[in-house]
Design a protein that fits this description.
By secondary structure, the protein is an alpha/beta fold. It contains 9 helices and 10 strands. The longest helix is centred in the C-terminal third of the chain and has 21 residues.
């Protein structure tokens, strides 16, 4: 049985008096792709931010490879080299070109040799189809290209696992596929990942396990084929029915008979 890269026990997270995560437990095995879905405000993105130390927790423990990263004096700059995170908003430095954005972390935080990192960055950019844009600035890139650069920047830190927070949410529909293809490629290569997404078709295709959250807790956890075919809770069934209704409504509005079920 594969070892647990990530273990979360009794996690509580509050903003003021509002508790958004209520005693959550979760394990992620090495090489596993866990997709987290659920309604807006259920705590999905907050969970990822707690794992990466961007939000302090009020109670509980998070362990990375068996070692606590939430107790004692944690050097989060070192932890974040092991847990890469890609956000919806890209967060590229506008005054730096693509290559400079990618090299900044490995050179400054890890002290690696520039020639080694450049070679790795070029290989990763080639893999995502952006080698010819290494000298471009963020303002010269499309949304999908920016997101692919953000993924390459995170991968160049050589993380053990990756967190993706709604990375296609701000993209035009034609740009979504190019980003999802990159993530599907990482899954095929065995990268451990937690992915928060509203793209149900993508969740079906990439997940080893689907986590459905609501009200700050895990309501249901299952293989994607089981979850999408026969969810076990009324709350999950209602959530999926809402998505299916919205997909049909979109098809009718676009007058596209081919996408109707």
């Amino acid at each position: 049985m594969a070892q647990h890269v990530l273990e979360i026990r009794n996690l509580h997270k509050s903003f003021g008096e509002r508790e958004v995560i209520h005693g959550l437990d979760l394990d992620v095995r090495k090489g596993e792709v866990v997709v987290v879905i659920g309604p807006s405000g259920c705590g999905k993105s907050t969970l990822l931010r707690c794992i990466n130390g961007l939000e302090p927790i009020q109670q509980g423990e998070i362990r990375l490879n068996g070692k606590s990263i939430t107790s004692g004096k944690i050097k989060w700059n070192l932890v974040r080299q092991q847990i890469g995170m890609v956000f919806q908003s890209y967060d590229l430095f506008p005054h730096m070109n693509v290559m400079e954005n990618i090299l900044l972390g490995p050179l400054k935080a890890q002290g690696r040799k520039r020639e080694d990192v450049e070679a790795e960055a070029e290989a990763l950019l080639a893999r995502v189809g952006l080698l010819d844009r290494k000298g471009s600035f963020p303002s010269q890139l499309s949304g999908g290209q920016k997101q692919r650069v953000a993924i390459v920047r995170a991968l160049c830190m050589k993380p053990e696992m990756m967190l993706f927070d709604e990375v296609t949410a701000s993209l035009d529909p034609e740009m979504v596929r190019e980003v999802l293809d990159v993530i599907l490629g990482l899954a095929d290569e065995g990268m451990t990942m937690m992915i928060v997404t509203h793209e149900m078709a993508f969740a079906k295709a990439v997940a080893d396990r689907v986590i459905f959250m609501d009200g700050g807790v895990v309501v249901e956890s299952a293989k994607p084929e089981a979850f999408f075919a026969q969810p076990q809770t009324d709350r999950a069934r209602k959530f999926l029915n809402t998505f299916q209704f919205n997909e049909v409504r979109h098809c009718l509005e676009e007058d596209d008979d081919e996408c109707l079920p």
